[in-house]
Write a structure and sequence with these properties.
Elements: H1 8-13, E1 14-16, E2 22-25, H2 38-44, E3 47-49, H3 55-61
Antiparallel strand pairs: 1-2, 2-3
């Protein structure tokens, strides 16, 4: 069976922690940052764990990352 390749679009969007959790950033953070409230902009800089219903799919996309 051939090796699975890493999906590069997913690799730029998701990170795997040392404990195996898959982390993502919030969306909609590039447009109209000036108009958004300060506390909202602070939230955009944080990472969030991927929902449990999506972890299986994301792990398959990140298969070649070791």
């Amino acid at each position: 069976m051939p090796k699975l390749k890493t999906h590069k679009g997913a690799a730029s969007r998701f990170r795997v922690t040392g404990g195996g959790k898959i982390m993502r950033m919030y969306g909609s953070r590039n447009n109209f940052r000036r108009k958004k409230r300060g506390p909202v902009n602070v939230l955009y800089s944080r990472t969030v764990e991927v929902a449990s219903s999506h972890t299986k799919l994301v792990r398959r996309l990140l298969a070649g990352q070791g």
